[in-house]
Design a protein that fits this description.
This is Pyrrolo-quinoline quinone. It holds the Pfam family PQQ_2. The chain is built from 1 helix and 35 strands. By secondary structure, the chain is mostly beta strands. The protein has a single domain, classed as YVTN repeat-like/Quinoprotein amine dehydrogenase (Methylamine Dehydrogenase, Chain H, 7 Propeller). The protein is globular and about 55 Å long.
């Protein structure tokens, strides 16, 4: 029988090409959690625009349904976001400016949009009723960013429950973790994290703080550890380093846990600040600290892989066996720091000011203002060797990353932005107060 000797190489070529295309799509068209797949705000896609405004590079807009400070996530051709919709505004009683307990009625919901068109594919209501806790007047009841494994979407509404849906919006399970008072009644903000079929939820509050691991398929509690902490807002991270995989959280102490069983690995004491920003890391070190405020300056610590026990520097010292360096005047604020090509970038939440540090030594290379800016709450990001950040009024600055400071351009969209971006292989998803925007060429 005559054989076609060219068919096999051609077949292999097509199969290989298909696999590479599939892997490329999976790698770059996913933004499955807060700050992206690597929790690092590094955009892998290459064909994204470097500028945009209300009439430039806007593929579609979709009106926001409800209010939220959570960030959008993307998987495949779907965009997901959480929100809280005010259904009924309670009347303010005589001689009462703010009620001691919330009387308004809300719907807590998860929405799925088509990535290509912005069309609403489905919206599911997780809960409807009066809030179980109060919130800051400038905040919302949907501050936690959802997370997906590509089969399910997990959404946490703080003290209003954790919910698991399939990608068609069908409820798989729900879990009530309780309702506890938060600092000054300001509410919650720590997003859930997925790892190896475990969903981690940090519930720090003024009454009974804890970290819990739920079975991602069933919602069953796998382990739970009490925490000697008050209210925090920082999202934990999974740190895969040269020694092991760790679950790292912030509070008055930074704590590392074994994600398999909740066993404490190491802890690091902080002197002051609020746990708002999340850590960044590479294989060798994790960089973390507490965010400053009106009377505090946020600090920054570089912790080495392999740490164990209490690794806090001795009083008056800035290093220890496992703390490579620390800077009590680093100026860490609410945006999470950014790590890129051996440099750390710390964005102030006021004035458009950004600081750059050598990640190895901790040396501050510069502290400069990009220009006039409103408050910055969202985390900065890297795309195509450019550093981006935007303020709450939609003004975006583009910087050249490196050891010297250089502003390349700026542009804006007329909306209010507190949420961090999501990205695909060729577009950004920006979530404002008025609209969600798909920004692409």
């Amino acid at each position: 029988m005559k054989r076609n000797h060219h068919r096999l190489p051609v077949t292999i070529l097509f199969i290989t090409t298909g696999i590479l295309l599939f892997l490329s799509a999976c790698t770059t068209n996913e933004w499955p959690q807060f700050r992206g797949a690597g929790a690092d705000m590094i955009v892998a896609g290459k064909d994204l625009p470097s500028e945009w405004n209300d009439s430039l590079n806007i593929r579609w807009t979709q009106a926001m349904d409800g209010e939220s400070w959570s960030s959008p996530i993307v998987f495949g051709d779907k965009v997901f976001y959480s929100s809280a919709v005010l259904v009924e505004k309670a009347p303010i009683k005589e001689n009462e400016t703010l009620p001691s307990q919330p009387e308004d009625v809300y719907k807590w919901q998860l929405t799925c949009l088509n990535l290509n068109t912005g069309k609403n594919l489905w919206t599911v209501v997780s809960r409807e009723g009066k809030p179980r806790i109060t919130k800051h007047a400038g905040s919302t009841y949907a501050c936690e960013t959802p997370v997906t494994d590509g089969k399910h979407v997990y959404v946490c509404f703080g003290m209003h429950g954790v919910y698991c849906y399939d990608l068609n919006g069908t409820l798989v399970w729900e879990k009530d973790l309780g309702a506890y008072e938060t600092q000054r009644g300001w509410g919650t903000g720590s997003s859930p994290v997925l790892y190896k079929q475990l969903l981690f939820v940090l519930v720090d509050n003024e009454e009974s703080s804890f970290l819990v691991a739920l079975d991602a398929l069933t919602g069953e509690e796998k382990w739970k550890v009490a925490r000697d902490e008050k209210t925090t807002y920082s999202t934990p991270v999974i740190w895969k380093n040269t020694q092991r995989t760790e679950l790292v959280t912030l509070g008055s102490l930074a704590r590392s846990y074994n994600p398999e069983n909740g066993e404490l690995i190491w802890e690091l004491a902080f002197e002051k600040g609020r746990a708002v920003a999340s850590p960044v890391f590479d294989k060798e070190k994790i960089y973390l600290g507490l965010s400053g405020g009106p009377r505090d300056i946020g600090s920054l610590y570089a912790v080495k892989a392999g740490a164990e026990g209490n690794i806090s520097p001795a009083p008056g010292e800035s290093t220890s066996e496992f703390v490579a360096w620390s800077d009590s005047l680093a100026g860490l604020c609410y945006p999470s720091p950014l790590l890129y090509n051996g440099l750390l970038y710390v964005l102030s939440d006021r004035g458009g000011e950004i600081s750059c540090f050598d990640a190895t030594s901790g040396e501050r290379l510069y502290k400069k203002s990009a220009g006039k800016s409103a408050a910055c709450w969202a985390s900065p990001w890297i795309c195509n060797d450019r550093l981006y950040f935007y303020d709450e009024k939609g003004l975006t600055y583009v910087l050249k990353p490196g050891r010297t400071f250089e502003v390349l351009s700026s542009h804006s969209i007329d909306d209010k932005f507190w949420s961090s971006i999501a990205a695909t292989n060729d577009a950004y998803i920006l979530k404002g107060v008025k609209n969600i925007y798909c920004v692409g060429k």
